[in-house]
Amino acid sequence: MGIRENLDTVKGRMENACKECGRGLSEVKLVAVSKTKPLSALEQAYACGCRDFGENKVQELVDKYDAMPKDIRWHMIGHLQRNKVKYIVDKVFLIHSVDSLRLAQEIEKEAAKKEITVDILVEVNVAGEESKFGTTSEEACSLVEKIAKLPHVRVKGLMTIAPYVEDSEENRPYFAKLKQIYVDIIHKNIDNVFMEELSMGMTGDYEVAITEGATYVRVGTGIFGEREYMTI
Ligand SMILES: *Cc1c(COP(=O)(O)O)cnc(C)c1O
Question: How many angstroms does the Cα of residue 52 sit away from the middle of ligand 1?
Fold first, then answer.
């Protein structure tokens, strides 16, 4: 299967999931997760109309940013080290993976230097997996409140990476939980917080995530096929 066919399949499934829960397809945006994939694959997706691409490594994002058309919205979805923030603040459309005040403060510092405002999501480890980054469900709200005080950082919502499961239904409670935290934060009416986006759902579970309220789904394998990691 080629990228075009895969995209048609993903969009069809997104549409069905939207119908199932009475949402409009325009409420859910697809981020094509292109990490590890060559430029030729991104170019094909671009030719099919994709304008949102997700990467998880700073160097790779920068290289692809330089090589690809400038109307692409780049999404940083991977763990971000503070010393690398400076390379991407003015290149990314949205950073999905902010999980500490220290990281947000670094983004603030670099954004202020460049006189820009950077949109971010707070990553929440709703499932409480040891191996995952993200703030805890309990601390999410207070972290949002602290980040909200940074003038060059704009909190746009929340993100989670659900566990890898065989049956995507197993992740429904985690998506519902992230939505609940999101609603709780909205009710707090915090200045400089714009709770609009819920980034949740990947190839294995994006339909479930949509029915639980996702506004961004991040799909890699479902569009580009399996990733091959180089082993040295
Ligand atoms: C790799 C990755 C994805 C995409 O995963 P697939 O299962 O290939 O769709 C989504 N989100 C994050 C944070 C990722 O690192």
Answer: 14
Q: Nearest C-alpha to atom 15 of ligand 1 is from which residue?
A: 78
Place of tokens 């981020």: 31
pTM, two decimal places: 0.97
Atom of ligand 1 nearest to the CA of 202: 9
Query: Is 229 within a domain?
Result: no
- CATH value at residue 83: 3.20.20.10
CA distances from 79 to 105, 122, 123, 124, 189 (A): 15, 12, 10, 12, 28
Which domain range does residue 134 map to? 3-223
Minimum-distance ligand 1 atom for the alpha carbon of 33: 4
Is 230 inside any structural domain? no
Question: pLDDT digit string (tens) for 155-177?
Answer: 999 999 999 999 999 999 999 99
The domain tally of the chain equals: 1
In-domain check, residue 228: no
Could you report the per-residue pLDDT of 48-78, keeping only the tens digit for each?
A: 999 999 999 999 999 999 999 999 999 999 9
Does residue 57 lie in a domain region?
yes
